Recover the amino acids of this structure.
DNA sequence: GTCTATATTCCGATAGAC
DNA sequence: GTCTATCGGAATATAGAC
């Protein structure tokens, strides 16, 4: 089954949003690579805000499937897979979607913001549960509660996808490894 | 001594850059509050990239003065003051300048990127030295080396100024406090 | 679903007067 | 240093044909 045009637009939009920022790409940047016209993109997403809504929903879908697939794995393995996922973001020269939406926050209409909030809560809750499980199993140690630890891991790793644009690749690996090492019991 | 127009433009530009993003504000957003015309802003900064250079240099200046003023303070107090500074960023609805520049990275010309890199290295080195000192004095404990710890603190705190736009104020305080608690010996 | 054509608005930037 | 006036370009978005 081939990917629909709608799906292709979402994926390209996501790519541009995270590589350049919401206000730094245009419908032309989407229509050109797909060899369609500006107006065809507007058919699928009347306004840019509609596209942003779809991108946020797409991330909710992906994350939902990801968490289902990980449900049977050990806390430590779940966390490793999560961090490796961020490593692939970094390698593709994108930043994490949460930070991308956050810095462009005031360019987004409420309908977009709500979707982003729902996605972010999904991630934070998933991380919190993972950490709590790891603590209960004695695999992790931390002096903080689960949500605080989740927030620190999430903020460290998503900020790293931004920071390494300024410093160096090596710093990403440092942070990623330190997250795992610090939790290890 | 009153602030020069040039200085006012830089401060307003910095404010807009961090509240909305580099591509989300225009020269009109600067000229209107200052009650001058678009062209007057172009006189001081011919292109928007020139303004971005000045903003980055301004941060280097401020941070240089800050670190001089802190030189005699204890490592723990230096860190506390640094984190409180981020708290004031958060309260003013801005994000940290490093993350703002990073997410808009590909909209910036090399001359801007170089300034941003220099500023960021200033901050990371200052944090690393502070942490190393704290370790040597037995005030801090960490299983990581100084630069890695510095990267984790910096990324956690600057990402928090972004993340709380999506979640809640309370999460900022959680992260800030956890940074101090985790290091405490 | 995709096209052509176009309306409208806004932005960065410059010329030249004061 | 600030102004008026304006250029050229690009962006979002819509109307209507196919």
């Amino acid at each position: 089954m081939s990917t629909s045009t709608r799906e292709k637009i979402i994926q390209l939009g996501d790519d541009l949003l995270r590589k350049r920022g919401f206000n730094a790409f245009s419908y032309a940047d989407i229509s050109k690579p797909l060899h369609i016209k500006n107006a065809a993109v507007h058919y699928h997403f009347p306004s840019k805000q509609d596209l942003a809504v779809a991108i946020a929903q797409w991330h909710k879908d992906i994350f939902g499937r990801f968490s289902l697939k990980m449900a049977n794995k050990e806390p430590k393995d779940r966390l490793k897979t999560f961090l490796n996922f961020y490593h692939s973001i970094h390698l593709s020269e994108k930043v994490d979607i949460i930070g991308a939406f956050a810095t462009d926050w005031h360019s987004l209409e409420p309908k977009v913001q709500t979707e982003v909030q729902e996605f972010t809560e999904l991630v934070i809750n998933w991380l919190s549960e993972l950490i709590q499980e790891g603590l209960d199993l004695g695999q992790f140690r931390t002096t903080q509660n689960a949500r605080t630890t989740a927030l620190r891991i999430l903020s460290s790793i998503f900020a790293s996808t931004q920071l390494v644009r300024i410093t160096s690749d090596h710093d990403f690996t440092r942070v990623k490894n330190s997250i795992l090492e610090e939790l290890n019991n």
